[in-house]
Amino acid sequence: MSELTDLYQEVILDHGKRPRNFGPLPDATHHAEGLNPLCGDHLDVQARVADGAIREVHFTGTGCAISRASASVMTGLVKGKRPEEVEAMFQVFHALVTEGPGAAPDLEALGKLAVFGGVHEFPTRVKCASLAWHTLRAALKGDAATSTE
Amino acid sequence: MRPRRHGGPARRDLHVLPALARPGRGGGPLAADLRLRGRAGGDGAPRAPAGPRPRAGGRPAARRPQAPGGGVSGLPTSARPPAAPPLAAAPPPGPAAGAAPPPLDVARLRADFPALHQEVHGRLLVYLDNAATTQKPRAVIDAVARYYERDNANVHRGVHALSERATKAFEGARRTVARFLSADPREVIFVRGATEAVNLVAQTFGRQRVGPGDEVVVTTLEHHSNIVPWQLLCAEKGARVVPAPIDDAGDLDLAALEGLLGPRVRLLAVTQVSNALGTVTPLAEVIALARARGIPVLVDGAQGMPHLGADVGAMGADFYVWSGHKVYGPTGIGVLWGRREHLLAMPPWQGGGDMIRSVTFEKTTFNELPYKFEAGTPHIAGAIGLAAALDYLSAVGLPAVAAHEASLLAQAEEALRALPDVRLVGTPRRRAGALSFLMGDVHPHDLATIVDRQGVAIRAGHHCAQPLMKRLGVPATSRASFALYNTSADVEALVRALHAARKIFS
User: Fold this and answer.
1) Most-buried pick from A71, B101, B129, B367 (CB within 10 A)?
2) From the list B441, B453, B461, which residue is nearest A39 (CB)?
3) DSSP label at residue B100
């Protein structure tokens, strides 16, 4: 059970139930659709970019607690960041969810992302945790759709 | 065969047939030989506890382990899995009409399935993902191993002893399958599975018959594998796939289906049992509607075969497809049964060895049935393993299996209904194999992860039936699906695991 409570930490349950920045972003400049064909998770991530930085990110769609929480936390963290900073955050996050906290030594830099440290114990859930990030990266690159497959 | 539809006789036939004799059964003498060496050799109990041992016995009907708790072979009680409950269970409700078959001695049968006896996350495995694939009995594992250990050779060509044995076993497997379906062995085509079988029919029969403006009707219950091959065909031909609707309970809307069977319809593709909801479709009625209009019918038996079996003659369909691994057999082997006149008229699907009679660069003549559709070296071990699985199932007795599973489904339905935050998805008139549900606002994926940590394997997702999920207005469901070795204790474990999930999300 301890691994389960590592996975479903309070912060994740909270963001899963009450996701922040959930809903359409009317003046979005970028958006992409993300699909996890395995479980049917489906996110639409919308971003407003101005002067080279992300001003706002929203998301809509359906998914499990992990994918919703990940999207919710992400939308808060990337605000004000430049795309290359988002990319760097994603790399740290990716190492965290695939290999665990040991692979992301700079826990300070992780900030709130640290709550996803339990995901690596559940290989089938890595895609749930990373879907929002993949989708945001696709949006910033100008791809309309992405998939975890 | 739809034993419950037509009552007992058809089913009894099935079990009498193999017992009469196994004329020309390829593996006969060999199997007997192996039995002497491998099995009855004295220390049977530790290595091969009990089990109907259909293959070894060769006369399943005579050895049906129907005597509850008793007469069959000496499984030491110690070998029983700890959680196996006494399977007194309530008599199965509803579906099993006629004389109820005696209850299964599930505790003893479980001993035949090595994979069931393991711990997962520190708990004894509770395997409720049987609609995805079933575990394999020792008889199947041994048959495959035996083939590779002793008889491995290519079939149909070699004149040496091993090739002769391999060919005999492979063709014997075909006859076993044919007998199980009450079919002619020449109408039994070995393929990789139900998916490949549907594709084969779409790309041969379908391509011959479907043209611009034509229609292929599929039902909303179908698995993607009985939708996408028809979409590919229709896209190529300028035809269209027309979905036949279901009602909110997850049953086919027969009146609507009838309305769709117009003059442009070239084929109706329908499942025997829904993999997502467990709905048993009223095949007799459906097929009658189509045949009255001269529309050929392909039945997807992937989910029906393990629970209902099939008598293709009585069924009246044109094609019946299924996968071996859902019927306790190996993966990578499945069966296309087709009416002889269709198979003869259909062009070959894949070209290669074994499917030809003679080849020159000017002209190739194709082999006779069933080899015309079996290009290349077949999955010999798979076919042999599949025959062992069917023998096993025959020996246990499909009616008894069906009754047992029906009683577990009824128990599971009742237990889930008693949970205030659980909603069953699909409440069909008749159910086999599986049930789908949702719990509160917990996503099925989260639920499956949590119950897995309690040792309970269920499936979450869209079950490769996205149009069905859309129709029901849910992105995904959790699905528990049952096999002959599941027990009341498994249902109780599922319910306990659901309580654990609720705790986390409350």
Assistant:
1) A71
2) B461
3) P
Whether A69 contacts A55, CB under 8 Å = no
Q: Which of B443, B466, B469 sits opposite A64 (nearest CB)?
A: B443
CA distance B417 to B383: 41
Among residues B335, B464, B480, B484, which one is catalytic?
Answer: B464
Q: In whole angstroms, give the CA distance from residue B264 to residue B284.
A: 22
Chain B CB contacts of A125 under 8 Å are 445, 449
Q: Determine the residue of chain A that is closest to B440 in CA distance.
A: A17
Lowest-confidence segment of A4-18, B24-38, B269-283, B362-376 by average pLDDT:
B24-38
Q: What pLDDT digit, counting tens, does each position of B265-288 carry?
A: 999 999 999 999 999 999 999 999
Helix (H) or strand (E) holding A26: none
Mean model confidence pLDDT for chain B? 85
- Does residue A9 belong to the interface with chain B, where contact is any CB pair within 8 Å? no
Q: How far, CA to CA in Å, does B289 sit from each of B220, B285, B313, B316?
A: 17, 6, 17, 11
Beta-bridge partners for B423: B438
pLDDT digits (tens, 9 = 90+) for B434-481: 999 999 999 999 999 999 999 999 999 999 999 999 999 998 999 999
How many degrees, rounded to 5, is the angle at CA A115 between CA A113 and CA A121? Answer: 110
Are A103 and A95 in contact by the 8 Å Cβ rule? The answer is: yes
Structural element, H or E, at residue B17: helix B8-20
Residue holding tokens 């040991």? A102
DSSP per residue, B314-383:
HH--SEEEEEGGGGTS-TT-EEEEE-HHHHHHSPPSS-STTSEEEE-SS-EEE--TTGGG--SS--HHHH
In the prediction, which pLDDT does B6 show? 40
Question: CA-CA distance, B159 to A46, in Å (whole number)?
Answer: 68
Question: Residue B150 carries which side chain, given as an amino acid letter?
Answer: R
Among A14, A39, A41, A60, the strongest candidate for a mutation testing the B interface, having the largest count of B CBs within 10 A, is A39
Give yes or no for residue B67 having a pLDDT over 50.
no
pLDDT tens digits, one per residue of B308-352: 999 999 999 999 999 999 999 999 999 999 999 999 999 999 998
Q: What does DSSP assign to residue B42?
A: S
Which tokens sit at B486?
A: 């599941």
Q: CB A39 to CB B476 under 8 A? A: yes
Cβ–Cβ of A39/B462 closer than 8 Å? yes
Report residue A102's pLDDT band, with 50, 70 and 90 as the boundaries.
confident
Q: Which residue of A has its CA nearest to B445?
A: A64
**Mean pLDDT to the nearest integer, B430-434:** 97
C-alpha span between A124 and A98 (Å, rounded): 10
Helix (H) or strand (E) holding A135: helix A126-141
Which residue has 């995901």 as its token pair?
A: A119
Instruction: Record the pTM.
Output: 0.83
Q: Cβ-count burial of B88 within 10 angstroms (0-12 exposed, 13-18 middle, 19+ buried)?
A: exposed
Whether the CB-CB separation of B469 and B462 falls below 8 Å is answered with yes
Q: Among partner residues B449, B461, B505, which is closest to A13 by beta-carbon distance?
A: B505
Q: Write the ipTM.
A: 0.88
